[in-house]
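Structure request: ModE family transcriptional regulator, Methylosinus sporium.
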Amino acid sequence: MRTDADAPQVGVILKLPNGGVLAPADLELIDALRKERSIIGASRALGVSYRKCWLSVDALNRTFESPVVATFPGRREGGAEITPFGERLVSVYRSIERHAANSAKRTLDEIIGALDWSYQKTASDAETEPRRDRASGR
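Returned structure:
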């Protein structure tokens, strides 16, 4: 029996005309920053290096005219917070995700109908998965 976890998922990566990228990993980082209120806290929550998180925040802030994340080094109550523009950016991105998933549903149902349910992922399949390295832009 299939569950919601078995449902296909549509991922959205926005490759912006200025060379910036907005991807699911960026939204995970923004969510972690909102909860942890610091880059180091977000890095711990996500299990990635502080440097990678810092570089990702820097890339997000340089991609847009308005900052996505405001940082306050040395502040005890939290060294980072999502700006109003950052909150709006998340809202727009989530809307794009919903529209993409709804638009793709009929086609995905056709693809799901053609799946080999005895397929088992192997280590060599990991080589074909896209990298999620925000800091290097790849």
